[in-house]
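SAMPLE LOG
Freezer: B-3
Tube label: C17
Construct: single chain, 310 aa
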Amino acid sequence: MITCLGTATLDIILRCQEIKPGSKIDVTETFFSLGGGALNAATTFKNLNLPYRAYFRLGNDLIAKIIFQRITKEKINSKIFYHQGSSQFSIVILTPQKERTIFVYRGISDHFSLAELYQIKQTDFYYLTTTNTSPQIFYRFLLKIKPKSKLIAINPSKTFLEDRHAYRVLSLADVLFLNHEEAGLFLKKKAGTLVLGKEIFFKLKPKILVLTLGEKGSITFFENKIFNAGIFKPKKLVDSTGAGDAFASAFFSNLVLNKNLNDEVIKRSITWGSANASANLEKLGAQIGLLKKKDYSRYKNLRIVKISFV
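STRUCTURE (predicted):
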């Protein structure tokens, strides 16, 4: 069973013509989609027929009712913590120039209390997006679950990484997902991806560190090896919303499906992550393009270069 923790949001996607300040903007297409770290990952796990449960917070507003109706229809296994207040939603603006602007209202969805985290049942696997939960709270939760877990993956937020207490939380991760910007933010320095990756890998000592680089691919650190991978170029770039979640959740799914970690498992995990992200880029929203289990076999021969380092 995978415990999946994070946010649930309603994404309101608007496709517009060029935006000119002070003018009326015509919307040419609208699309409503579920999103958020918990629901995006849960959808990947569901599509792969993996046992999972998603935990997230909602308010008592109209957005919460819409999200609940959609997850009920999609049969997403979930545990919801309800609170007085407003739920999270996003407005995504897409232009013909492939530019994307996102307005995010986080409401009460963006942080968990220790009491809520302690309600989560012990499982073998954890896929955790930190949202903006206090690192001190997250640390106590991880100390509780770590002894009996098999793999803990963490996909932290930028706000979380800026906190000085983030280090000891991330040092408890078995699998850590960051992008280049987040890696620099965490170390508070600007450097190349390999330099940042090596420093984080040696400092935190996770089993696996993955740095995603958007259209430039990804770099994965495992044991004394680095796997430098390209991407599966999407047939048509439609919307990049949720691409990072698509990559990380598919990568982690393959780890769950394999009892042992080795080079071939890592390569397949990278391939799955790249495939899921590419398919996601071809559709509007964070979930509609996510691959089904049978679809992964179509994606082969991803460029992956393995090098050793000391």
